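As a warm-up, study this chain.
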Amino acid sequence: MINKKQYFLIIVFLIFPILILPTQKKIIYSGMNYLPKTLDPAQAWDDVSAFFTFNIFDTLVKTNPKTFKMESSLATSWEKKNNGSIWIFKLRKGVIFHDGSNFDSDSVVFSFKRQIDKNFKFIYYDFPMSEDIFGNIKDVKKIDQYSVAFYLKKPFYPFLSTLACSAASIVSPSGVKKYKEKFQKNPIGTGPYVLKKWEENKRLTLKANPKYWGGKPEIDEFINISNPNIEILHNLFQKKKIDALFAFSISKLMGLKSLKWITIDSFPTFSVNFIAFNFNNKYLRNKNIRKIFCHLWDERTLKYVFQNTISPLSSIIPSGMLGYSKETAKKSFSISKAKELMKKEKLPLKTVFHFILEDNSMLTFQLISLYSKNLKKVGIKLKIHNIPEKEYLEKIKKGDYDLTISGWIADYPDTSSIINPMFSEKLHKQGFSNLSLCKNKEILKDLNLVSKTKSLKGREALYKKISRIINRNVLCIPIFQHKETVIYNNEKIKRIYISPLGSITFFDIKKR
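Now compare it with the structure written out below.
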């Protein structure tokens, strides 16, 4: 028998269920085989870290992912003076950081000073990209609460583009001062998402910022599950426990294409992957020896190993960027030409070259194993070493290698973001094998000239020239342009778009 009190409660639940039951959160689960190394955008030089910082922080300007034109973000307008050596920005008012502090010109000055001023009080660790991206900034000064000026050492045509990269994100000064060296694990920005929880090597959860200046995001939480075992991630996806995959097995990928509830999208990125030479090796300093290696590279192996997840590339400048040209991107696979050069240069038979790889991809190991078979045909022995990341970086720093696969994705949509890191001695010393050891004076002269050139045609001509010099002298062997591939459940997600810079704006993801 129901008493009056119980009867009243039943009536209340029936009439007012919405007032009592919580609304269902819109959550997207994704899977990756790695989690970020840092969530400090100024420290995030790996693509996985930038993948998340891009959504936690905002920059002064942003790149339109389709037109590549610069648009307002935390800055509402800008102007350049003194032939482009001074840039003045008007800032957006009413923006607050995730910790409740206000965004203004002081936070802009703080965010850049900690990267460009070695004597700045609030620096707690190194910023590997700062010198190469912001080395031309002489000073950043506050004009008033919502106006700030950048003073450059010399005019630099793509300066505005550099302010759209992850390293140019505006951080909370109070957050940096509070967490100090732990800020990289406790990021505080003004972006559409806030870090909710970070479980090392397991999962990372971002929650929507309800006070975001651009409006509250549609997706309430973005939960990324990490597991180095790709098979486990695939199983979770096929059981519909994960909505999107950013890491996948190529063999599994082929089987997923036939399923109607799955969408697979690939987006070419502004990136280059290349075989790098150690110019301290006496044989590899010889251009004809490098030509032998180039003649024995067969791009058909890319299709065999990677299927359609990459695009073959023969230029240091990726397709789609200023300066790319098929004309400068020609090289021929020829065992006979390689043999001719072997006889001419009298390279001792069975000479051993050590090729080091980071121990994180069986695909690259398979690719170089196939390459080694071609080298063996002319008497060159390639010994491949698969080693952990820390050991790999140390070997690059010490020059303890002969060849490796290296690569770079543009931080901002200008060719300088691809070319400049290729010749950075600082990045090489940090473990990024590039072309800085070749000491090509002509290229260094052109790099200095291109930064001063206003005309797009003039810059394009210089980039094409640099690309031709690299190819003519075989300073490296460009092999492929990366494609970002995402696999998602189209019953839950309408579309995921990845920009050529490899970034995804969670704010733009729509759930069905």
